[in-house]
Write a structure and sequence with these properties.
By secondary structure, the chain is mainly β. It has one helix at about 5-25, and strands at about 25-30, 40-45, 60-65, 70, 75, 85, 90-105, 110, 120-135, 150-155, 165-170, 175, 180-185, 190, 195-200, 205-215, 225-235. The chain has one domain (about 25-235). It is built from 1 helix and 17 strands. Strands 3, 4, 7, 8, 9, 13, 14, 16 and 17 form a 9-stranded mixed beta sheet that branches. A hairpin with a 4-residue loop joins strand 7 (about 90-105) and strand 8. It is globular. Keywords: Signal. It holds the Pfam family DUF4198. It comes from Stutzerimonas stutzeri.
Length: about 240
Amino acid sequence: MFRPTPLILAFATLLALLGSRAALAHSVWLEANPQGPGHVVRFGGHAGVLEDYPAEKLQQVHAYDRQGAELGVVRHDRADGVRLVPEGDAALMTLFFDNGYWSRLDSGRSENRPMDQVPGAVSGVRAVKHHKSILHWNAQASRPLGQAFELVPLADRKPRAGQPLELQVLIDGRPAAGIALAFDEEGELARSDANGRASLVVRPGSNRIWAGQRLAVSDDPRLTELSTEYSLVFHADE
């Protein structure tokens, strides 16, 4: 009978851990609705793979016009993704998506419940996602919108492909150092400095810039880690 060696067991454990982390490394973002007006809320992870999601996880939606005034948004919850139609010409839109608690067992399997509700759980993550789409680039694009975790471009003008774009990471409105940034979760390309600033070279077409942070939690029976991820989307001309 085959008996796994300690090396094989260790490797399997590592794969399970990496798979669990990859399952949590998902972003939420907006795309133009291909079937009508407005936008579709997308949820997915690496390599552009999209996943279904419960509509109730999308908890906040905001839209702003070119002067920074907030607009109403008509929401349609559908099985193939939430549709959002701003009531006016939106320059900016933001989302907050709570992916809930994910508890991991020794086997590597994860359940979408807090640790204190999963017997045998060895770790737990609460995963929250923030998003901003810049639909029209003007002075409002460089204005913080008060998101708990936010990427703010430090440029009033729309960037062109091949040019560096300076960004500032804000957590609770304050500059945050040491935050990793990347395109589409491809792997860290920059890290924010002591003033929360980082720079990335803009790509042609649609840009989706990711930022994220993981914090250990020791005083909550529901989790051992808080994961916060952000996506900033805009279009750049060549």
